[in-house]
């Protein structure tokens, strides 16, 4: 059968009209779905008409593969299939199925039409366990660059799902930053706070290697075989030991112990991928993604390793120059979030905020004023500052509030004056008397 697939036989007749071809495509699809073992070759008729009837052919092939693809992945290098804990050799039908499926994936990812994106999204939704997922993921990511709605919806669904492996396969090619601007905001749908790696507060990977080493040391302490013992074993004893290890490995898999360890490592990889993408966006000055990255760093601050905090801060500050006012406030809040639990001098960042609030160059929108209010509360209400500096900020905020209706900043002014016990009459506010009735 494989030779027949390589040399594609043409089943189309020159005198077939459009209706006849479509009916025959439908008939072939039905035959393959009913009995895929005997009728698999019938799909070649559909492949022969992909150029003439691309939409009908692709959707028909999609329907076929969604029905006949098995619930396990085929290991092409070892010619094996693994269904849960059972390993078995590939049979002829599975080899032919994989060959035809690879041809279909190539057709799907060849063109950038809506039907191609739809097929790729459906394959990722229903057959994420099967082969060639990485190729489909890369194709869907390219679709987000042109803001294809199907691709954007597909990626959003993946990040909301519980499929950790598919999330990781989606994140790896994203490290090349080859995706649309709306994709990175979907990271916020990943509930990393349920990850064991996050609960352990450890993000270097050594924790799991150390656990493995401790288990190995414990085995030696319990009198199990070490390398010296293994050299003394006979051939028959080595064979028995190999069988024992295989049985033990299957037992651990059935009890879910190995799966838990694999899940931990996968969670750790997902966290590291997210952080890497954030830092690459800042390093490569992708200004269209700054806002999403700053919001993500605020939420996922726990995945930023201690030795990367200072470098991340420098990257953020370097990106603020060519950003909008709202993005600048988001960047300031991101830095404050990273240093929230760390005792460190942030006076330079405070001075940057003061320069940013210059009334002659800044007209705040309501959304921007709310972000500014959050930053001001962190600097002056969470942390104690010099009264002189507080007065300088209050005067500048009063002018801003007199120019626009900014209730969020008005509230902050009142809170700051109450917290630092500032009296507007006696505390050097005479020249600002014109604003007293304007900023409230």
TrEMBL record:
<feature type="domain" description="Nucleolar complex-associated protein 3 N-terminal">
    <location>
        <begin position="23"/>
        <end position="104"/>
    </location>
</feature>
<feature type="coiled-coil region">
    <location>
        <begin position="226"/>
        <end position="255"/>
    </location>
</feature>
<dbReference type="GO" id="GO:0006270">
    <property type="term" value="P:DNA replication initiation"/>
</dbReference>
<dbReference type="InterPro" id="IPR016903">
    <property type="entry name" value="Nucleolar_cplx-assoc_3"/>
</dbReference>
<dbReference type="InterPro" id="IPR011501">
    <property type="entry name" value="Noc3_N"/>
</dbReference>
<keyword id="KW-0175">Coiled coil</keyword>
<dbReference type="GO" id="GO:0003682">
    <property type="term" value="F:chromatin binding"/>
</dbReference>
<dbReference type="GO" id="GO:0005730">
    <property type="term" value="C:nucleolus"/>
</dbReference>
<protein>
    <submittedName>
        <fullName>Protein involved in the nuclear export of pre-ribosomes</fullName>
    </submittedName>
</protein>
<dbReference type="Pfam" id="PF07540">
    <property type="entry name" value="NOC3p"/>
</dbReference>
């Amino acid at each position: 059968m494989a030779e027949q697939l390589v040399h594609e036989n043409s089943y189309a007749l020159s005198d077939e009209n459009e209706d006849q071809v479509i009916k025959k495509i439908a008939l072939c699809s039905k035959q393959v779905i009913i009995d895929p073992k005997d009728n698999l070759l019938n799909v070649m008729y559909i492949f022969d008409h992909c150029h003439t009837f691309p939409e009908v052919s692709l959707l028909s092939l999609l329907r076929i593969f969604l029905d006949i693809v098995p619930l396990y992945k085929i290991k092409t290098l070892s010619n094996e299939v693994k269904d849960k804990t059972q390993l078995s050799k590939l049979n002829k039908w599975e080899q032919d199925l994989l060959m035809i499926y690879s041809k279909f994936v190539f057709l799907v990812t060849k063109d950038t039409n809506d039907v191609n994106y739809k097929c790729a999204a459906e394959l990722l939704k229903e057959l994420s366990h099967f082969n060639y997922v990485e190729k489909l993921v890369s194709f869907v990511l390219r679709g987000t660059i042109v803001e294809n709605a199907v691709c954007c919806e597909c990626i959003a669904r993946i990040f909301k799902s519980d499929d950790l492996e598919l999330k990781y396969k989606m994140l790896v090619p994203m490290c090349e930053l080859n995706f649309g601007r709306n994709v990175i905001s979907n990271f916020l749908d990943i509930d990393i706070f349920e990850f064991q790696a996050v609960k352990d507060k450890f993000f270097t990977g050594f924790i799991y290697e150390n656990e493995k080493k401790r288990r190995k040391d414990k085995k030696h302490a319990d009198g199990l075989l070490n390398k010296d013992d293994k050299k003394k074993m006979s051939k028959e004893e080595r064979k028995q030991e190999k069988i024992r290890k295989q049985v033990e490995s299957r037992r651990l898999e059935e009890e879910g112990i190995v799966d838990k360890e694999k899940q931990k490592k996968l969670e750790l990889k997902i966290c590291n991928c997210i952080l890497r993408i954030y830092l690459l966006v800042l390093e490569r000055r992708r200004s269209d993604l700054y806002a999403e990255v700053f919001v993500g760093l605020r939420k996922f601050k726990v995945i930023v390793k201690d030795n990367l905090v200072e470098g991340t801060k420098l990257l953020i500050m370097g990106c603020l120059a060519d950003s909008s006012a709202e993005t600048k406030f988001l960047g300031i809040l991101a830095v404050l979030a990273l240093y929230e639990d760390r005792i460190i001098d942030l006076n330079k960042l405070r001075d940057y905020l003061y320069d940013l609030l210059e009334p002659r160059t800044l007209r705040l929108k309501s959304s921007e004023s709310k972000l500014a209010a959050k930053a001001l509360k962190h600097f002056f209400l969470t942390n104690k500052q010099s009264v002189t500096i507080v007065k300088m900020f209050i005067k500048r905020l009063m002018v801003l509030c007199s120019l626009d209706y900014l209730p969020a900043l008005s509230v902050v002014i009142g809170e700051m004056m109450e917290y630092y016990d500032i009296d507007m009459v006696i505390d050097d506010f005479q020249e600002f008397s014109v604003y007293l009735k304007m900023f409230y």
